[in-house]
Design brief:
Two copies of one chain form a homodimer.
Chain A: E1 2-4, H1 7-19, E2 24-29, H2 35-45, E3 52-57, H3 77-86, E4 91-93, H4 97-100, E5 107-111, H5 119-122, H6 126-141, E6 145-149, H7 153-165, E7 171-175, H8 195-200, H9 203-216, H10 222-234, E8 239-248, E9 262-270, E10 273-280
Parallel strand pairs in A: 1-4, 2-3, 2-6, 3-4, 6-7
Antiparallel strand pairs in A: 8-9, 9-10
Helix pairs in contact in A: 6-7, 9-10
């Protein structure tokens, strides 16, 4: 596995690979890899039909607000390198903040409307940071296929919109959520949880399962489903709901009824730790 | 000369040309071609060392404010085709607004700070429209070299900043201003001028010449130079100054003294017609 830190070298590597007719799959991460991230590599190879996989490891300062956890966001570069290599990554791209954001950088990419709802309500500049860094990474790595996890569903839909709007060339694949045995969606932030919080955090996925059961039994009204989810989660004294919502995946606007391809998404605080989860019908 | 209207076909053409190791030069325009535009084609071939030149003709609605001249902006598609072909353009890309901005498009590219000064003061959403459409065009055409005219100097510097920040692959060349015999910078908007306005409009380039003479004679103070330019232009009763400024080309911030590479730029109204001109020292 190659390690590349310079954007120029990364781009040169990709240009050469493309001249050799290689199909490049790209897995952008903030490191601190878990099985969720590693599953994306396999998706790039199988579903994305890629010959070669580039993974980026970059904790993007632009997507953290000043009051958020940028400084204490977990970093484990040496372990990440080993995990990526074992999982079959061909190139790991690990740029510095100075290379990604030179002092005179002024350009932002923003997806209107989709970025200001759901997680955008509590994190108003978050998705602008995500779309800006992903635009840069896509131009550097120039992949035919890029894989994101459904865990960050809003992020996936926003990036897919950006790629389509800006007529960028990559195909965006959204890969399934990988869960712990008890159902908790894997996340680098799970390690922030105390033992009690960790036990109660299973209520996120369980509330989504409950919603799915109601829908399978014929319930269509979003208000009824959301009320049941709220009540279920509120049985856990350490959980504080940020939002639970039913939206259209194209517009991310709330809908009064669920339908095929509705996204049911939620964000719940445990202390300062904010966890998210979702299902797509 | 080929005419392509579909973004997908345009991109496919470029990908094929690149596999044939062709070096693509790109000249984005809003049509209504004059000698200023046509000179950019030659710059792409000579300075840009391009084998093949793509010109886009697209009047971009996103860079016009509701009170501006989008509807009456001059269009002459049949004549433009002939002029482009005679000037040696290989492909003319002429997309529809619907293809460039599908109804669900939500993505904007913005260069902060540089877009809110100078022309950005009277046209606050203009450069966001420019950078968004140019980002799309660059992704569609995928050129090695892109040529803009210095006439729109602020636009050039903003786009250069965007390309560098987003790590896009094209090289931006800024080509010299082409002028009428009396010095008026060529512009599609010159045709809006009445005969009296056209006569007086020569004061723009003459005020810049005057500034250059003062600087060559040793004057460095921006305030002194700008005062002389104001006074010179105000001798023309139909001219109404929007701005005259001395800025650093990197930051577009005003400087108290001129220096090597200062940009002296101005915008002046004649009736509803707004003309711009500049020199770079």
């Amino acid at each position: 596995m190659m390690v590349i830190t310079s954007p120029k070298e990364m781009n040169a590597w990709s240009q050469t690979a493309k001249l050799q007719k290689k199909r490049i799959g790209f897995v952008p991460t903030m490191g601190c890899l878990h099985r969720g991230h590693l599953s994306l590599i396999e998706v790039a190879r199988s579903q994305g039909k890629c010959d070669t996989v580039v993974m980026s490891v970059f904790v993007n300062p632009l997507q953290f607000a000043p009051n958020e956890d940028f400084d204490k966001y977990p970093r484990q570069w040496e372990l990440d390198k080993k995990l990526a290599e074992d999982a079959g990554v061909d190139v790991i791209f690990h740029p510095s903040s100075e290379d990604m954001y030179p002092a005179n950088a002024k350009t932002f990419v923003e997806v209107a409307d989709l970025s200001s709802v759901m997680c955008g309500l509590t994190r108003p500049t978050h998705f602008r940071g995500v779309t800006t860094v992903v635009a840069k990474l896509l131009n550097i790595v120039s992949p035919q296929v890029t894989v994101f996890g459904q865990k960050d569903a809003q992020q996936c839909f926003i990036i897919r919109r950006m790629v389509q709007d800006l007529m960028m060339e990559t195909k965006i694949i959204m890969a399934p959520i990988i869960r712990e045995n008890d159902g908790l969606a894997m996340s680098s932030r799970n390690r922030y949880l105390s033992s009690d919080e960790r036990t109660q955090a299973v209520c996120l996925s369980q509330s989504l399962e409950r919603a799915e059961k109601m829908i399978n039994a014929g319930e269509k009204r979003s208000a009824v489903i959301l009320k049941a989810m709220h009540e279920y989660i509120q049985q856990n004294p350490l959980a504080k709901v940020d939002y639970i919502t039913v939206v259209n995946t194209e517009t991310l606007q709330e809908t009064a009824e669920v339908f095929n391809k509705s996204l049911i998404a939620l964000a719940v605080y445990f202390g300062k730790t904010r966890l998210i989860d979702n299902i797509i019908l």
